[in-house]
Amino acid sequence: MHFAYILLGSNLGDRETQLQTATQAIGSLGNIIQYSSVYETAAWGLENQADFLNQVLLLETELTAPLILENLLRIEREMGRERHEKWSARTIDLDILYFDDEVLDSEFLKLPHPYLQQRRFTLLPLCEINPDFLHPILQKTNRELLETCPDLLEVKKYKG
Q1: For 105-148, how does the pLDDT look when each residue is reduced to its tens digit (9 = 90+)?
Q2: Of 77-81, 87-91, 95-99, 135-139, which range is least confident?
């Protein structure tokens, strides 16, 4: 069995429903064994847009990382995700943050996620689930990465 940490994000439409729909679809890829709280976060990268709802799931699965990615992209398409501009508004965004402690650098998939350590909206929910998980390249825990994260954008638990 493999363990994949998956980040969900949405800032278009009914954001809560988008996360719930994506979570149900991801559940068909294995067994979701942990859920972080949902966080509301200012947009990162392309900041002039609506706030995001973000959440991290821990998926136990028999699938490989490339197969997980293929399925996440399919879920995004089925949920109406359109890719126009990098970091633009989206109905749903699904990213693999970690896959076991695998390191991969291919044209289509980079593991761990290359921006993970630069984003509070990723690190806060990751720390909620597993603060002591060790980044296999940087050799720092999620907690240590959060403590040194350069991102100062506001990230708060979503009240709903």
Answers
A1: 999 999 999 999 999 999 999 999 999 999 999 999 999 999 99
A2: 87-91
**Which domains are delineated in the chain?**
2-157 (3.30.70.560)
Label residue 26 left, alpha or beta by phi (over 0 means left) and psi (-120 to 50 means alpha).
alpha
Catalytic residue among 15, 51, 81, 119: 81
In the residue annotation, 14 being an active-site residue is answered as: no
Respond yes or no: is residue 100 known to be catalytic. Answer: no
Q: Is 4 exposed, middle or buried (CB count within 10 Å of its CB: 0-12, 13-18, 19+)?
A: buried
Does residue 93 carry a catalytic annotation?
yes
The candidate with the shortest Cα–Cα distance to 52, out of 95, 15, 6, is 15
Tokens of 102: 């695998």
Whether residue 120 lies in the annotated active site: no
